[in-house]
Specification:
This protein is α+β, with helices and mostly antiparallel strands and 204 residues long. The chain folds into two domains: 2-125, no CATH class; 136-193, no CATH class. It is built from eight helices and eight strands; from the N terminus they run H-E-H-E-E-E-E-H-H-H-H-H-E-E-E-H. The strands form three sheets. Strands 1-2-3 form a three-stranded mixed sheet. It has a three-stranded antiparallel sheet with strand order 6-7-8, with no helix packed on it. It is elongated, with a radius of gyration of 21 Å. The chain starts with a helix and ends in an 11-residue tail after the last helix. The relative contact order is 0.09. Mean pLDDT is 82; it is low at 180-204.
């Protein structure tokens, strides 16, 4: 809030600092980012200032008392500089926190056609490649599964009364990637209930 106030009445928190305020980005206290109108002075001691054409009222809001770009505008700004895995992580976190869901984000991108950040987000949201994940381990696992020749799995689905990380129903296979400490009761539960997938083996 101090950074926004220091930049004047038309300033708004944006980019990585906005993502951190919304909860789906990493906080960087040493790099507070604020957006100002293009005509405003650029230099602010200790603040990374982005000069840009006026943001529309729909792109601005107040969160926890601080003027900030809305989640969609924030993700567009982040998409111009994050690596694909980092961007996917923020999209997933934004969805988990109910900031914006992938379908709403996908529809919003049509209104921003041609703007920076749209293409990377479209690639992440492509229905053939985007999958919900709750951990970095799951995101690392998907390329390994593809390299092994496996088809795209269903993710975060229920199978025989259990929520599983990865499920290949046509192969009768389930893979859990969160580690044993998150699934200590799974083997016993699986034995009692016939397993997450009949005829399959639970893998931690």
């Amino acid at each position: 809030m101090a950074a926004v106030l220091a930049c004047g009445t038309r300033a708004t928190l944006s980019h990585g600092s906005a993502a951190a305020l919304w909860g789906f980005g990493a906080e960087r206290p040493e790099r507070i980012e604020v957006s100002l109108h293009a005509s405003a002075p650029r230099r602010r001691s200790g603040i990374l200032v982005h000069r840009r054409a006026a943001l529309t009222p729909a792109e601005l809001t107040i969160h926890e008392g601080i003027p900030v770009t809305n989640p969609i505008r924030t993700l567009l700004d982040e998409a111009t500089r994050l690596r694909p895995m980092q961007l996917e992580r923020e999209v997933n976190e934004a969805d988990k926190l109910d900031r914006v869901n992938p379908e709403t984000l996908r529809e919003a991108l049509d209104r921003y056609s041609g703007q920076p950040g749209v293409a990377p987000l479209r690639a992440i949201l492509d229905r053939r490649t985007f999958r919900f994940s709750d951990s970095d381990l799951e995101r690392y696992f998907r390329p390994l599964a593809r390299a092994a020749g496996l088809p795209e799995p269903e993710t975060k689905v229920w199978a025989n009364g259990h929520e599983v990380d990865f499920h290949w129903p046509e192969l009768g296979m389930v893979v859990e990637t969160d580690g044993l400490r998150y699934h200590r009761s799974r083997p016993r539960d699986a034995e009692a209930n016939g397993g997450p997938c009949q005829g399959s083996r639970l893998i931690d």
